[in-house]
Amino acid sequence: MDIVIVKNYIEMSKVAAGLVRDCIREQEEPVLGLATGGTPIGLYQLLVRQYRAGLLSFKHMRTFNLDEYIGLDPAHSKSYHRYMQEHLFSHIDIPRDQTFLPDGMASNLEKECRHYEKLLKKFGPPDLQILGIGENGHIGFNEPGSDFNGHTHVISLADSTREANARYFQSLEEVPTHAITMGIKSILHSKKIVLLASGERKAAAVRRLLEGTPDPTFPASALSQHNDVVLIADEKAFGN
Ligand code: F6R
Question: Class assignment of domain 2-196+209-227?
């Protein structure tokens, strides 16, 4: 794993934006794996800025998001569909039908998981996958105990994840209990993985990640099985 330690959130976002830009420029039809949450917002802002400055086009890019809550309509203000529209897609020139997220409203969730995995096989794997990390070590919504060989599946969110994400909702009760997430195996298929971590809250998880021993109770440790992972952590997440 390559480790880049930067001063703060803004620097983390800049380094990540540089890697995404290189990937988009190098590939004719780039495929990007995307995350939501607080961590990549700065990265998306910088990509929008580069697009507006005429430095980058997303016309030929396809994107796959890691996860979506079950039971939230795409138009729901807290759905990841809506998040992606608000933070990235509606501001750039990516055609809507080149952006993929799991459908958390599907009547047959198992079928939806298989369908998403098929799309990943057809258009993927991502040339570059952006990841955040949960305080409990989750990547995507692969909670502790998740199978390292897992593909896209339905997951019951850990209490600690619902509590951590309650800050994005009005109350803890509003936070969905389940999600669809790409599995650890699906994530590991990506050609390159960029893991972002910012702030003190992530310091314990980053420390454990750097121990480097694969351990299913700490899902992010599966990244030690991939040969092209870049961790971009700011000083606080790195424990400085
Ligand atoms: C989001 C995702 C999650 C988040 C993680 C960190 O699509 O897959 O793994 O990356 O929960 O969330 P933030 O960035 O809000 O701390």
Answer: alpha beta
